[in-house]
Amino acid sequence: MSTLHDEPPSAKQYYYLCLLSFFVFVSCDNTAPKQVVQHTPVVKKADTVVVDAKPLEKKKTKKKIYLTFDDGPNKGTDNVLNIIKEENIPVTFFLVGAHAFGSKAQKATWDSLQTNQLVELCNHSFTHAWYNSYDKFYKLPDSVVSDFNKTAERLQLKNGIGRTPGRNIWRVDSMSFTDNAKAKAAADSLYKAGYDMLGWDLEWHFNPKTMRVTKSADDLAKQIDSLLLKNKTKQPGNLVLLAHDQVYKNAEDSLQLHQLIRKLKANTDYEFAIVSNYPGIKRKRITDSLLKDKTYKVDSLRKGNVINKDTNRAI
Q1: Above 70 in pLDDT, residue 264?
Q2: CA–CA separation, 67 vs 146, rounded Å?
Q3: How many CB atoms are closer than 10 A to CB 30?
């Protein structure tokens, strides 16, 4: 006789039995101690990047052009002023004292020069070497100094920068040069009296009969390029150009001047400058007390030239 316990398990009972066995197995596995594995972190070395060090680019030094005009105020001065105003460039005028008072027109031009912010005014003597009597003028150094001092006083030019009429003479800290030995003593006297004397590297010549320039703007620009490129100026990288403003009363020559300035401005290696920025210029000032000192006597050679009694130096 069979009992309930002798009956085989049903499919449902068999399913529950397998499920129970699985949970028992999982529970036993979770209670077993686990081995902790420590992982050493891997540190990657930063890649080394090699960069070629390039030197810092230095700002290129521009070559300076000092555009200077002698003998004003004169008939062509106003045309020059109009051109430099249009082109907005600085220039230097070396003035003849007597010309500032020669006529109403010259006086008016002198007034314009004094108020123009683009120009620097310097000394070119009072009489222009006794009206071009160069040999006689330079034989008497004291009288030469007196002639310059008269312009300094009458025109109130206090920067102490001058240019000798008809002679290419340099007396600055950076150099001493005299083109004519007969004028050496006079040049030395001017320097001792407190003047820096500036000559020129290149002159824009004109025909004295026709008062017209003898070289075109194109040709002169090429000559300027060559002198600066070959370091044929008194100071490398600096060129002093001499012109005469009376020449530019002529419309065609004024056009040549205008064209020259535009050509030079188009060259990014160049810049215009006034002569007080020239190397070696000490920028001395002729003091008011010196100009107004009354302890002088009249030089018998030229009325108005005076000599300091104490120093025997012309003023």
Answers
A1: yes
A2: 27
A3: 7
